[in-house]
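Hello,

Our lab assistant flagged a job as stuck in the queue for most of the afternoon. It eventually completed. Since we weren't sure the result was trustworthy after the delay, we are filing this so someone can double-check. Below is the sequence as submitted and the structure that was eventually returned. Let us know if re-running is recommended.
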Amino acid sequence: MKWRIVNHYAELSRLAAEMVAEQVRNKPTSVLGLATGSTPIGMYGELSEMVRRGEISLKGVTTFNLDEYIGLTPDHPQSYHYYMNEHLFSKVDLLPENRHIPYAEKGEFSDEECKACEEYDRLIEERGGIDLQILGIGHNGHIGFNEPSLSLEVGTHVVALTEETREANARFFRSIEEVPTHAITMGVGSIMKAKRILLLVSGADKKEVLARLYAEGVTTELPASLLHLHPDVTVIADQEAAGWLPVEEIVKEET
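-- returned structure --
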């Protein structure tokens, strides 16, 4: 696990965008795994500007998003379909047929939705797997919507969101009652199959969970800790989230 501690959020966003752009330049047909939430917004803005200036093109790129709420239509302002269109898709030359987000409009959890999960994993495999997966980290250590548990699902699946996660996301809704109780998410197995992983961590409210990720061993009670088992993970964290980390010790560990 490589650690890059930067001064502020804007620098985190630029560095993350540069890493994505490098991936696309080296392989124009890259498959990217995309995340939502507040942290990647700056990165998407930087990528949009790169495309606008003609520095990169996403025409050959395929994307797969990590997750989506169950019960929200794609045009709902808090759906991840809407988020991706607002922050990236409407501003770049990524072809519509190459954008993939789990679709989970129905409120009930049927066999049909489970089949949709299997189809999502099959489609990722058909495209050759994910070359670079972008991740954020939840306050309880979740990645995607893989919540802390005694065991974790390998493939894409339906998940019941913890109250902690719903409360953290309530700021995007008018009330916590409006926050969906379930989502479809890539499983940890799907995430760990990515060739490279980029974890973005920003803000003082992520200090505690980042400390756990740095110091604790691998446990399903901290899903992000499984990233220690992946051969190519880069963590980019700003000073607010990681200014306390022993940078010299981290660099020594990496060398």
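-- support follow-up --
The delay was a queue issue, not a problem with the job. The result is valid. Residues 2-254 form a domain with the Rossmann fold fold (CATH 3.40.50.1360). Residues 17 and 46 are 6 Å apart (CA to CA).
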